[in-house]
Protein 1
Amino acid sequence: MEQKKDNSQELFPIVDEEGRVVGKATRGECHSGTHLLHPVVHLHVFNSQGDIYLQRRPEWKDIQPGKWDTAVGGHIDYGENPEDALRHEVREELGITDFAPTAMGKYVFESLRERELVYVHRTIYDGPIQPSQDELDGGRFWSLLEIRDAIGQGILTPNFESEFQRFFLSLQQ
């Protein structure tokens, strides 16, 4: 069986901190420690009980393999806008086409390997979720207590942890 991996030649826009495109680079260049700022979209999916859906990243991913992460996270392709990227990533990763996203804000996330301009959204959704068999290793709803207990334990991605604390900490009370 062929080992899956990310397409290192995929083209991403390079942006300034306001989101204006200033160039382009490959996924491989963006994830190699160059810290080229590239945009991504995130969608936090809550159900009507207040639980939050997390995806499990497959072991073959080049960033944070095997950890639990934001329900939907994806790169914005070169020439694509954040709204279109969000719609196609949600459809690809969770099979959801009918949802109403609310923009929460944007921020710069930096790790040793990469630097991202993250467009954060949330939605309340109680319909069927069909995690992509190609892109994810499943997913499930977590209670806010489970999230709080998992923070700092190496179970969740550092990006999810910091974003959850930044945008949804008030829900933990």
Protein 2
Amino acid sequence: MKLSRLLFIPIMALLVTSCSTVRVSTDYDTKKDFSKYKTFAFYKTGIDKAPINDLDKKRILRAVEAELLAKGMTKSSAPDVLISLFTKSRERININDNRFGGFWYPWYYGPNPVTVSQHTEGTLFIDLLDADSKELVWQGVGTGALTMRNVEQREERIREFVNKIMAKYPPGSHKQ
């Protein structure tokens, strides 16, 4: 009985930390020279279609702007690239069987070793479009749990998503 309780704590810690990570993937046009992109602006047409509230849109846009400025790009009314975004979310249910070895122990009379947890998983798409052609040239996608209980946690989680996605821009600037 004590062994199962000792195993419960590390298993739950692993589950909680695995939910906090942001999984990132990117795709881009290999024929484009990303070094020529020095200025940016937000693509209102695309951003207006994103199915999230205006407060979260502002948070995402501020975080994207901060990341691009840190990379040496400048915000401009005549930009080289346009930034658009899209989001989606879904409810995830995790069922964990915490019995040691997955076997049923008829002599164990402790609490139910099966736990069920639910969280929202969100996906943020950040698109960079060539300003002249309006063609997608780079896309970063981040997916992770959205477990924000207050404004500060919400802002921090959004910054984390954007930071991890934009760390992959421009292509070739990061280590694989």
Protein 3
Amino acid sequence: MASSLKSKLNALSSSAPKKPVQKPVLMEYRSETAAERALFSLPAEGVRRMAFDAPFDARRALFLDTETTGLSGGAGTVAFLVGLGRVEGDRFVVYQYMMSNYGAEALLLEKITPMIREAQTLVTFNGRSFDVPLLRSRFTMCRMDDPTAGKPHLDLIHPARRVWKLRLKDCSLGHIEETELGLHRDHDIPGAEVPERYFSFLKTGDMTLLEDVVDHNRQDIVSLGTLLARLAGSYAAPLEQTSMLDVFSLGRALQRRGERGDAETCYRLAAKERPLSTIERLRERHVAASANRQLSLMLRSGGDMLRAESVWRDMIDRRQMGIFPYVELAKLYEHSRRDPEEALRLTERALELAADDEEKAALHKRRERLTRRIEARRSSK
């Protein structure tokens, strides 16, 4: 019985039409545009302030972006399309390599390896968290040496967020292109649709499904060069930014870098009082208070209490940040000036402005402590 069933299955198998095995093929694309002129004279200070301290030469950089079979990573995620851009002479040339099927992955990785090895630096947008780790895992899975290992990597998403997050909120590459780079994509494919397009191509062999994907990837890489030039210029000249929100944000970035003098200059510019003429000016009034707060705390941490006090009194005059300047002055007078009476007066004023129970509870404790100290001083005389 068993042998009879086996013979029938074998007969069905031999009579079924055979699907031809598709040969792995690597599809290659090359395009070029005039290189962004600013790439040839990037301000070294601007690049350094982007938290990139390695030597950088745009002519030796490799701009990298991938399109993958999944947006969340994982062991089954594959980069089916890898785009690489670099400056060649006065041109910006983009090379793109795409797998005809999963069997072509080794061909793709072999193709991109020499260009990665030749590069001095990798430049990406969110590549440190996604693209490069994914490629590393694929090199490992294919038992190939990883050319990205130890390669300096400038991920532009982090300096972009540091300077524009406060103003733009949305720091996706597409939004930055429209608002900061003056670029607008017509009929661009949403990134979430890219994996499904590739899966449909694998089923149908219809190359038209991937035309938008190739264009999307190419534009991402070209935009990396434009974005790099714009960011380097912004970090090199923070006081020349048109929005005080950006000036303040750059001040915070400089403070984190330990450039306190330039950070102070940014904070003071962002903190200046300006007439309310537009909605943007209203936002700048709010950031002026934050700039004064950040400036005062930086001065305090550096031990410059006289100038910190001046900022806190300016904040009180301009009614900025609620009880914050009163509390900071109260601390100053209690601990440094040894003047509990003035500290108590400031605390009482803060209590009048306190907005919530937590603030009030902390201020009541401070008032009780100061009152006890004053009474103890009087009784000891």
